[in-house]
Design brief:
With 246 residues, the protein is of the alpha+beta class. It has three domains: 44 residues; 94 residues; 103 residues, no CATH class. The strands form three sheets. It has a six-stranded mixed β-barrel. It starts with a helix and ends with a strand.
Length: 246
């Protein structure tokens, strides 16, 4: 009888210890999800804010930053976020962020203008326009395409070594002389582009200023001022007016 009582007591201890073990596992599995939930907001809060629109509807955050240069960004528009593989170089010029209606549909878009290069004879920018509803990017016609399709230029040497320059756009033809001197053995029959490409917003329109140059070390003889319009069928901003200023 004593043996039976001892066996029963031993079984009770084993069963109690088993229940305690199950309870411990249940508590452990319940801790992991709560940690995941609390760490995510901390990551968002600690993301580095680069710049924001005037009333902070649009915010630009750095994803990865090394030695003052950003490789990858997060754009937040009214609380919705999306990552982009844009680079922001350490040029000394901060990105510009806007929230305005450029398409003319009564709804604002996010606009981010980023300086991509700065130096002697160099000042270039990229422009990004995002649909505020789904954060998709609306393309802006690049200056290379505009120059190739809508601008004609011709450069020739005069007898006095000045340059005779002709510029044709769809609106107008410009003819003028420039005192810029080319090296004796250097031949150039067209204006060159690429050293200066600046984007700005004026009266809810995109305007770019594209420098036109001659020589191996760019010497600028004038700028093309390009005003864009939104093409609804192409869902793209395209050149509307092109003016040359020497």
């Amino acid at each position: 009888m004593k043996k039976e009582i001892s066996v029963l007591m031993l079984l009770g201890v084993v069963l109690l210890s088993g229940c305690g073990s199950d309870k411990s596992v249940t508590q452990g599995s319940g801790e992991s999800p709560s940690k995941q939930v609390t760490t995510q907001p901390e990551q968002e809060t600690n993301a580095k804010l680069i710049e924001a629109s005037e009333n902070e509807e649009v915010k630009l955050y750095a994803v990865n930053e090394t030695d003052g240069e950003v490789h990858g960004v997060t754009v937040e528009i009214n609380g919705s976020q999306k990552e982009f593989d844009w680079n922001i170089l350490n040029t000394g010029t901060k990105p510009q962020v806007f929230y305005t209606d450029l398409t003319g549909d009564g709804k604002e878009e996010a606009v981010i203008i980023i300086n991509t290069g700065r130096g002697t004879g160099l000042n270039t920018y990229d422009i990004h326009v995002l649909n505020a509803k789904d954060l998709t990017e609306i393309k802006v016609q690049n200056y290379e395409e505009i120059v190739a399709d809508q601008i004609e230029t011709h450069v020739a040497k005069n007898d006095d070594d000045t340059l005779a320059i002709t510029v044709k756009t769809k609106e107008k033809e410009y003819n003028f002389n420039s005192n810029v001197e080319l090296a004796p053995n250097y031949n150039q029959d067209k204006l060159a582009f690429g050293g200066v490409a600046i984007y700005e917003l004026e009266n809810q329109k995109i305007v770019s200023k594209i420098g036109a140059s001659v020589g191996t070390s760019p010497q600028y003889v004038g700028d093309f001022h390009i005003t864009y319009k939104f093409d609804n069928a192409k869902n793209k901003f395209i050149a509307d007016q092109i003016k040359f200023v020497d």
